[in-house]
Design goal:
Elements (H helix, E strand, L loop, with lengths): L1 H19 L3 H19 L11 H21 L6 H19 L4 H21 L8 H21 L5 H7 L1 H16 L12 H9 L2 H25 L4 H19 L8
Helix pairs in contact: 1-2, 1-6, 2-3, 2-6, 3-6, 3-8, 4-5, 4-6, 4-10, 7-10, 7-11, 8-11, 9-10, 10-11
Length: about 260
């Protein structure tokens, strides 16, 4: 119920923003309220011992969830990409949760997400006939954040596993954001300087970039997340192994540089 109400609220906000073009401050303020409400009901955040200081832990979890919600919106810019990423993250989560002995209820929620996104992808595969928009992308970002937090609280997956599993999107979005801020650009304005956007123009194909994203997830990130689940003490090192090549490649492509056509 919590996920349904929170996800519905975020989806409605996305629709409202599409229709009325809300200011960034108002949009983020409402998103923050919804995120905090969802996280409150997902579980006792202050009891999760990832960080010794409960208030800091709650703030960081809320900020990370808010960032995941928005970066998913930022990364929904070409046909099929956001849906394929959601499928890969969900499939990786199912495998890792099953391996970790997670409850059937949690696995079923991820399988339900796979079914929904898979059905949508049939119509969103390039060239797309329907599009996700803010309604779908923000909804997916929130649901993935909430389900990921649940798996962390129940200790079926580690933080490092989630950093690895979601690396393709957060590295591109974060690097692009930081470089745009460094160049003095307005971070929340529409732009086309994510690495995936630059590649899609350079290659003249949405399908090729979407397939590349699927390949990176299936052949690189999900296997590394599986290795991390069996070697938890090496989580930080494996996260670096997963993310550094992506960041280097995205930098070389020109992520965040609006001068690149």
């Amino acid at each position: 119920m919590t996920l349904g109400l929170g996800g519905g609220g975020i989806a409605f906000l996305g629709f409202w923003d599409d229709v009325r073009n809300l200011s960034a401050r108002l949009r983020i303020a409402i998103q923050s309220v919804i995120v905090l409400w969802v996280l409150w009901w997902v579980g006792d955040l202050w009891l999760y011992d990832l960080i010794p200081l409960p208030g800091v832990a709650v703030a960081l979890v809320a900020l990370a969830s808010l960032w995941l919600l928005n970066l998913y919106n930022f990364m929904d810019g070409i046909d099929g990409l956001a849906a394929v990423e959601a499928l890969c993250i969900s499939a990786g989560a199912v495998v890792l949760l099953w391996q970790g002995g997670a409850s059937e209820d949690l696995v079923v929620l991820w399988l339900g997400l796979i079914a929904c996104v898979g059905g949508f992808l049939c119509f969103n595969w390039p060239p797309a006939r329907i599009f996700m928009g803010d309604v779908g992308s923000c909804f997916l970002g929130l649901i993935i954040a909430a389900l990921a937090l649940t798996s962390l609280q129940q200790q079926f997956m580690s933080l490092w596993g989630w950093i690895i599993l979601t690396a393709l999107f957060w590295t591109d979005a974060t690097l692009t954001l930081l470089r745009r801020i460094g160049r003095g650009e307005t971070w929340h304005q529409a732009h086309r300087s994510h690495a995936y956007q630059i590649l899609s123009r350079r290659w003249g194909s949405h399908r090729s970039v979407t397939l590349l994203a699927a390949g990176i997830n299936l052949l690189w990130l999900i296997p590394l997340a599986l290795v991390e689940s069996g070697m938890p003490d090496n989580g930080p090192l494996l996260a670096l192994v997963a993310c550094v090549p992506l960041l280097v490649a995205q930098w070389l492509i020109g992520a965040g540089d609006s001068r690149i056509a």
